[in-house]
């Protein structure tokens, strides 16, 4: 059946998977960060496999549109990109949460996006520093002066500020990086001392053994098998634990994908069904394992529900969250 408005064919194929044709149009996954970071790697993983569940689509490729921690792409997705299913966006997981109180995001309504789903991750987010600093525990980490790298805005910047303010730490935050890959490169060159977006796999794949020392976990879904303390357990005021959890809940949007506002419902359905099938597919999971990734998929409907809850957060909670990141 051809939808005359969108030009997409809706075809039932196998296990309730629909396929768009749209004249065999190519599909671009735009990523708001530089090549080599987590968002880029996950987008390329998706580009490698999604087409098998959209058999009438053309090529699927990735384009990096980095700038301001993906804020540039976020604004493009909300206002400029075509709503015909040919452009998918991957932006900072922080934005749906941050838009409720962060001045840099005021006026951006991420509920307008059509959320396809998120690959997610069960991997922890660690704050880690160069072992050459001799920092061994939280006390040293909070009291010594050194430099941690962060993006201009977005997740890494927010987490680093949250850690700094929670611990009343003396470290300096060096912002302006287009993603975590440039941050890691700067650490390897000796220009930075660490960052707060390290995954355990980075200790094996990116850095030389023994050169980085993890200090704490700043994760919404931490790995309790690791010996590093949790940020929420280091909060001085018990009432602030709620705020830390609220801020960290942005991880539910980790490596998520969305279509522009106004995307027809049948196109969104096509993508959601294809995505949900992809993240359960053995070939997809096998490549993820080779990349030492641990997907924790979330559906587009679940992302919508979480965003709805975020937007109903009481004003006093939002005010305290803003103060904690000030």
What does this structure look like?
- Belongs to the UPF0065 (bug) family.
- By secondary structure, the chain is an alpha/beta fold.
- It folds into 2 domains: about 25-120 and about 250-325, D-Maltodextrin-Binding Protein, domain 2 (3-Layer(aba) Sandwich); about 125-250, D-Maltodextrin-Binding Protein, domain 2 (3-Layer(aba) Sandwich), CATH 3.40.190.10.
- It is about 35% helix and about 20% strand.
- The chain contains 12 helices and 15 strands.
- It has helices at about 40-50, 70-80, 95-100, 140-145, 155-165, 180-190, 200-205, 240-250, 265-280, 280-290, 300-310, 315-325; strands at about 1-5, 10, 10-15, 15-20, 25-30, 60-65, 85-90, 115-120, 125-130, 145-150, 170-175, 195-200, 210-215, 255-260, 300.
- The strands form 5 sheets. A 5-stranded mixed β-sheet has the order 11-10-12-9-13. Strands 6-5-7 form a 3-stranded parallel β-sheet, with helices on both faces. A 3-stranded antiparallel β-sheet has the order 14-8-15.
- Helix 5 (about 155-165) links the parallel strand 10 (about 145-150) and strand 11 (about 170-175).
- The radius of gyration is 20 Å and the shape is globular.
- The relative contact order is 0.19.
- Mean pLDDT is about 90; it is low at about 1-20.
């Amino acid at each position: 059946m051809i939808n005359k408005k969108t030009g997409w064919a809706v075809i039932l194929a196998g296990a309730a998977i629909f396929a768009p044709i749209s004249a065999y149009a190519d599909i671009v996954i735009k990523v708001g960060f530089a090549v080599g970071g987590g968002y880029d790697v996950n987008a390329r993983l998706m580009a490698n496999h999604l087409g098998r569940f959209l058999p009438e689509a053309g090529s699927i490729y990735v384009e990096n549109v980095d700038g301001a921690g993906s804020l540039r792409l976020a604004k493009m997705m909300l206002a400029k990109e075509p709503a015909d299913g040919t452009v998918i966006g991957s932006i900072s997981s922080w934005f749906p949460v941050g838009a409720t109180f962060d001045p840099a995001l005021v006026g951006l309504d991420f509920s307008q996006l059509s959320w396809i789903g998120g690959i997610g991750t069960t991997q922890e987010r660690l704050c880690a520093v160069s072992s050459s600093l001799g920092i061994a525990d939280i006390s040293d980490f909070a009291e010594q002066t050194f430099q941690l790298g962060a993006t201009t805005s977005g997740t890494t910047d927010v987490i680093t500020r949250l850690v700094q303010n929670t611990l009343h730490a003396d470290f300096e935050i060096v912002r302006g990086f287009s993603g975590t890959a440039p941050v890691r490169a700067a650490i390897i060159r000796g220009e930075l001392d660490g960052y707060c977006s390290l995954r355990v796999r980075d200790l094996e794949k990116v850095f030389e053994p023994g050169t980085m020392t993890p200090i704490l976990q700043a994760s919404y879904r931490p790995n309790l098998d690791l010996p590093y303390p949790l940020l929420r357990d280091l909060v001085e005021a018990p009432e602030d634990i709620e705020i830390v959890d609220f801020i960290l809940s942005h991880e539910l949007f980790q490596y998520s994908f969305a279509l522009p506002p106004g995307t027809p419902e049948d196109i969104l359905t096509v993508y959601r069904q294809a995505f949900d099938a992809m993240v359960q597919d053995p070939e997809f999971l096998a490549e993820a394992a080779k990349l030492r990734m641990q997907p924790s998929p979330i559906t587009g409907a679940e992302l919508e529900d979480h965003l709805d809850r975020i937007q109903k957060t009481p004003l006093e909670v939002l005010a305290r969250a803003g103060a904690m990141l000030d």
